[in-house]
Amino acid sequence: MDKNSVTGLLLITAILALFWWMNKPSEEEIAERKRQLDSLNRIEAQKAAREAKQTEESIQKEVSSEEVEEKAKQDSIRRQTAGILAPYTFGEKKFFTLENEKIKVTLSNLGGRIYSVEIKEYQTHDGRPLVLFNGDENRYGFSFTYNTRIYNTNDLYFDAVEKGTNSISFEITGPDREKLALNYSLSADEYLVNHTIESTNLGKKFATPRNALDLQWYQKMPAQEKGRQFEQQYSGIYFKFFQDEVDDISGTSNKDEDLRTPLKWVAFKDQFFSSILIASQNFASGYVETEVIEDENSPYLRINEAELALPFRFEEDDEASMQFFFGPNHFYTLRSYEGLELHKILPLGWGIFGWINRYAVIPVFNFLEGFIGNYGIIILILTILIKIVLFPLTYRSYMSTAKMRVLKPQIDEINERIPKEKAMERQQATMALYRKAGVNPMGGCLPILLQMPILIAMFRFFPSSIELRQESFLWASDLSTYDSILDLPFKIPFYGDHVSLFTLLMAATNIVYTRINQQTTQSSAQMPGMNVMMYLMPVMFLFFFNSYAAGLSYYYFISTLITIVQTVMIRQFVDEKAILAKLKANQKKPVKKSKFQARLEEMQKQQAQLQKGKGKGKSTKPGRRK
User: For position 122, what pLDDT does the model report?
Assistant: First the structure.
């Protein structure tokens, strides 16, 4: 490119730059143009939004009209098939409350049933409100036939009609004065909810098989206590046969039972609380089933179900009356409902064990409650009273053991004189010595056996006593469950993941008592295997009682400790030389045999002669063959 061309380009560039600079808009002009552009953009956006809204509204109108037509069509079909039930097949769930000082009952118009129950005087082990069930954890209702179709009350939205203070009725009504009503009322200061099922003018419309309502009651039982395994073991389904005994299906396995005879009530029982459905007359029959939830992390213990046939006739204007009990498993509270025998859901033991608890332990325990507020002290006093009552048996047991001990030299002399091969002769000589000395070899065992019913009764009493629930003593925060002084980061088979101090103390005192007992008896010398067994028992208790109620381990610990003190004190005051002198004097006296003793000796002699005859027969056989 030549010089003139370059010069021309530079001049053109300079002219253009000068022209741009002379025509450049000011800042005010730039801002004004920006405002104009933004205004145009807003106008365009608003226009587009209006057009989109108009399009959406037109679409919604088309959809709404289709929905209205479809809904009207469905309503028409529903009215044709459901008849008077049509308005009750859909609706809005609503809740109503009946409440007194003891319980709070929430009911729902969906199903006309009890929705949840809270026991106001108690809490769960972690301080939450104690709710027996809530929402769909509980279902209660029955099925019936109408217009050849089967309906269930749980699927119907009832009209709620309040009848007064703490009383409500859930109703289904028809144009010809038809009515099905589920009525509930709650009395003041009671755990009972009164419940009636009432029908009017439904004879030609509603029907049920066998002239009975098949009540279906379902409940998922929540865990309320700290010890899940223990609580699960003491929960289940209890039922009372009409004019007969109370039975149950409980424990830690799944069970069911077909009940073909009339029933008075059915209870879904937890360790300390129960839901019980009671018929004013009786249930014609029933079926019960309980399923244990094995997942230890589940908030529920088990699933309980009951199907009960309640006599009811739609052909007549009929009414069936029942009651729900929602409350604690307290002995005197349950027994206050006369004629129902609700207190028998408490596993206090059968036979004599239950009698001891009902007529001795529980009355004394509740008497002490009126004066003493600390339940650890109450258990201590109760234990002392029991040991005082049993002291004569303890004394007789020790005296019998002492007599056996001072006769040991004479028994050793018999064992040296008579060889082991002649076991029958050795036994006869030993029994003859006991008889002459006036000693009963079973005298030490009988008193202990007589004490066993009380020990077993207490074993049944403490896990069933709601009085101990959440009552603390020393390091135990709750005497109704285990006391943990150390939570382990792992689980030991058959032991658990914690260490119970009361159980350790109980095992230790049992070992000490076993040692003292062996020093005062001859069982260890005569039966060495028994020695090991006696020491093994406290170790087994250590595993068995680690997850049991702390109150029970505490009772056994105190009881064994008092027995040790009694044994040591008796030993200090008993003169064994005087006992031996008396026994030797008895040996010099002529012994008058009873008919039984004479007969027993005659049988022993015959048996000995028979054995000798067998021995001779064996020795002559080889000679005959020769």
Answer: 92
Task: Give residue 78's domain range.
Answer: 60-87
Give the closest residue to 469 by CA, choosing from 133, 190, 226.
226
CB 591 within 8 A of CB 544: no
Residue 452: is its pLDDT beyond 50? yes
Helix, strand, or coil (residue 245): coil
How far is residue 321's CA from residue 315's CA, in Å, rounded to a whole number?
18
223 and 329, same domain (yes or no): yes
Q: Which two tokens stand for residue 219?
A: 């409940």
Q: Which residues of 513-549 are buried (b: 16+ CB within 10 A; e: fewer)?
A: bbeebbebbebeeeeeeeeeebeeebeebbeebbbbb
Interacting residues of 303 by C-beta distance below 8 A, sequence separation 6+: 218, 219, 220, 221, 290, 291, 293
Kindly indicate the confidence band of residue 23, based on its pLDDT and cuts at 50, 70 and 90.
Answer: low
Phi and psi based region of residue 258 (left: phi greater than 0; alpha: psi -120 to 50; beta: remaining): beta
CATH of residue 128: 2.70.98.90
Residue 430 pLDDT: 73
Angle between helices 550-573 and 445-464 (to 10 degrees): 150
**472 shares its domain with 397:** yes
Q: For residue 29, what pLDDT is reported?
A: 62
Identify the sign of the CA torsion 185, 187, 191, 194. negative
* Separation between Cα atoms, residue 460 and residue 587, nearest integer Å: 46
Distance CA 519, CA 515 (A): 6
